[in-house]
Specification:
The chain has helices spanning 22-32, 43-46, 63-83, 97-106, 121-131, 138-145, 162-175, 193-196, and strands at residues 10-16, 38-39, 88-92, 111-118, 154-157. The N and C termini lie far apart (48 Å). It has one domain: P-loop containing nucleotide triphosphate hydrolases (Rossmann fold), CATH 3.40.50.300. The chain contains eight helices and five strands; from the N terminus they run βαβααβαβααβαα. By secondary structure, the chain is of the alpha/beta class. Strands 2-3-1-4-5 form a five-stranded parallel sheet, sandwiched between helices.
Length: 198
């Protein structure tokens, strides 16, 4: 299959705790962005029957064994999609520095705008209970670590309406004048004092 030449796709990547409203915000971004962006999230793999539902503490179906390969594969799927000219909005839950390091390494050829999606813990836990399709306690666990691995190109408060945050992200993305976090020098930029206060 021969494709006509196209510039690499751009990626808007949201990071935040489970139940922070990232998927809803991605959909709002798709409506607000002036050109087509595909929604390509890890949840599309995790909750669509791709992962076999045979959890075992050890052995062939042990999640601890499968998880790193699934996440590494997803990172490379993002690169493959962008590499043939697809613009992407994606959401993620960072759980360890190694995941961020791999994302930066794999996506280094591409324009990535990295957004931190913040939500107060009481609201996270309320949403987690209300949605009914997530393990209770994941939001609290994510809240404690998801924003501890470095800086962002932009941070938003998901207690605001998705349309408000989407407009803010689009404006910041279109008017940025400096390299993004994924392009910045230095291996692991430290979290700012403002981030630590969320």
């Amino acid at each position: 299959m021969t494709l006509p030449p196209a510039p690499p796709g751009q990626i808007i990547l949201l990071n935040g705790a489970s139940s922070a409203g990232k998927s809803t915000l991605c959909r709002a971004l798709q409506s607000a962005l002036p050109e087509p962006f595909l929604y390509f999230a890890l949840d599309l793999l995790l909750f669509s029957g791709v992962v076999p539902r045979r959890p075992e503490p050890a052995g062939a179906f042990a999640w601890a064994e499968q998880r790193p390969r699934l996440f590494a594969g997803y990172h490379r799927c993002l690169a493959a999609m962008a590499g043939v000219g697809n613009n992407l909005v994606a959401d993620y839950v960072l759980e360890e520095q190694a995941s961020l390091d791999d994302l930066k390494r794999v996506l280094s050829p591409y324009d990535v705008f990295f957004v931190g999606v913040h939500c107060p813990l009481p609201e996270l836990e309320r949403r987690e209970r209300a949605r009914g399709d997530r393990r209770i306690g994941d939001a609290r666990s994510d809240f404690a670590r998801v924003h501890t691995f470095g800086g962002y190109d932009l941070e938003v408060d998901s207690t605001l309406a998705p349309e408000v945050n989407a407009a803010q992200i689009v404006t910041a993305w279109q008017t940025r004048t400096r390299p993004g976090i994924f392009e910045s020098a230095g291996p692991h930029p430290e979290a700012s004092e403002d981030q630590a206060s969320w």
